[in-house]
Amino acid sequence: QALTTLRSSQINFDELAKQISNCMETREKGGEIGWVTTSINADNEHLDLIIPEKARDEVLGTTTKPGDIVMTSSERGYHLVQITDVMVDVRRISKTKLRKKKKDENGVEIDRRGILGGALAAAEQEGVEFKSDLIYKIETMGCQMNIADSERMEGQLQNLGIRPMSYEDKNKGRKVDLVVLNTCSIRDHAEQKVYSYIGPYAKRKREGEDVTIIVAGCVAQQEGENLLRRAPEVDLVLGPQYANRLGDLLEDVANGNQVVATEASHIMEDSTKPRRQSTTAAWVNVIYGCNERCTYCIVPTTRGVEQSRPMESIVEEVTELISQGYKEVTLLGQNIDAYGRDMIPKR
């Protein structure tokens, strides 16, 4: 009956836990138990009194994603467990390649690791001179999902202390230190347009300037490592599923690596707030990807399988937007009427 109630969205998991849970440790917290480590020999013994090891292993052994609710049992009774988020170590599943060091006119190797050092504390090294005032530019092509992804990436860049280029910077002839090309695969000759956009920034890099080049979006997912072969000046190739993990991946770039992040992965909830382009209208993602595989469409290849966001996360984001004075919210998804069908149980 509890699962039926949740499936019909008559009540959320937090409220249900407070109403029917017999667990004294978690009931008043809406059933929250915090992060659970899934690695081999993980130390989760502190959870034994809440959900015993056998039941816990059954849950962790089930293929789940954020929003899923599974039921298991133990000597303590039945357990309803909701997965609210999945933290993936993107630096482990991405591919890194150490960039070859260049030499200056005197034959001395040039260390490029300082370009992002002012923003990324992990990149700070003794003897490396950092540039403290870094500015970025984002070029967005394609659909509203790409616009929303760009807003999320901007939020992360600003959270790192990197600021957008201003009119004053442009008038003074200031050049960007970091550029993001958020690409689209739908248009004709999409790949050629991307290489054309990269051109001026790649030229700056070949001439010895420090500029970080990031190619994100659907063309990045489609081309992957081929982008590095055709445009070796690119620092980071970023599929759409990693748009909210840009900051993590920039750590490897700051250490002198080229990074390709296009592996299939669960999409984590944002830890930083997007920098929205409007103060009255906002985009809110409710589902990512598509399972339809239409013969004429590349979206399932570049955006991956369907992944619905937990309803609680959507409601929380919309509620916050209303409190900030937003008047219009557009719910986004490649296949938005498929919302919930990928969840356990289906919504």
TrEMBL record:
Its cofactor is [4Fe-4S] cluster. Residues 276-347 form the Radical SAM core domain. This is Uncharacterized protein. Coiled coil: none annotated. GO terms for biological process: tRNA methylthiolation. GO terms for molecular function: 4 iron, 4 sulfur cluster binding; metal ion binding; methylthiotransferase activity; peptidyl-prolyl cis-trans isomerase activity. It comes from Chaetoceros debilis. InterPro entries: Methylthiotransferase_CS (IPR020612), Methylthiotransferase_N (IPR013848), Methylthiotransferase_N_sf (IPR038135), PPIase_dom_sf (IPR046357), PPIase_PpiC (IPR000297), PPIase_PpiC_CS (IPR023058), rSAM (IPR007197), rSAM_sf (IPR058240). Residues 1-85 form the PpiC domain. The keyword Aminoacyl-tRNA synthetase does not apply. Keywords: 4Fe-4S, Iron, Iron-sulfur, Isomerase, Metal-binding, Rotamase, S-adenosyl-L-methionine. Residues 134-255 form the MTTase N-terminal domain.
